[in-house]
Please model this.
Amino acid sequence: MVKQQRAKQVVTETNTRARDIFNNMTEEINLKCPRCMTVFHDYDGCNALICATGSCKAAFCAICLEDCGRDAHAHIRENHGSLFDKVAFKKSKSHRAMVVVARVLSDLSNEPSFELVQQVKNHIAKAQLLQVDESEGFGMNKCRTFLRSAKEDLLKATKNDRLSILLNPETYQPGLICLTADGLSPRSSIPADFRVTLSHRGDRMYTLRLECEDDNGRWKFVSLDKVKDELKDKPKVEALSNLKQGIKCAVIAFEGHRALFQSQFARAPKEGHFSEHEICIKLTQVSLDGSTTRDADDFKPLGRELRVIGLNPNLRMLTLEKHILETSDTDLLFTPRGISLDTESLFLF
Model:
């Protein structure tokens, strides 16, 4: 109970601190009269503004917020051009917000609490502090278009990578043709003198077995810890390198089956003792375009014993796919190089 209360207290303190940091940031970003600090949101007409506070009446520039005494018209003409350039105002407003956000996140870069930093970023995203009006010509519309296109291309690449286990991916027809070793890429296929099997033990548990054919044509068991020793006198086989870890996240071709399958590491049951040769994975079928089925939790075992004829570990590609799907544009956008900033970078990682 003491630990739970302490954990709740830490969460509450983190939430409060994140909110305070965000409030201070928005207070700095708010548009204010440079003399009396009265906040204003927007205006109509000329960029030469006069404070509405009766006791102030300061004349200031809407673009750079400089106090111009009694008249801001001359300042605007000399420094910003047109008196009615609303685009310049929006651009300056967005620039100011980005600089403040970048500085705050830079100050938090050495913050040991990941939760605090993430909460501040969440507040920024929800408040849309970095949202830029596409009509202001600030370049962000092009950035978003580029990001959308880049994400689509990366997702396409991750899907195509699953099919790279095949010698001719164009011929992949899930459910129609049984996969054979002849149809697999040489770098992903299991050599004929090796045999890899997965024996289903229930509840997503499988026993992984590796065997090697000796000079007499008999199959002998090979410890998963000694795979490198068995391969030292043979050409390097990527499919067998670090087999136990690789098979936990890989595209797998099983003998006698008509589709490829994506394996992913699953949490092992709490009960029971498991040997070094047992793994816990879930399998999802790979579709024609390289995507996977989403009913992984309900996927039934393919059989009691599965012969693996091809294997393509793809942990990095799955991590990339997850990152693409979960990362917002706000976390990726940065100010175009044409804009001069006081900070070195506005990346929000």
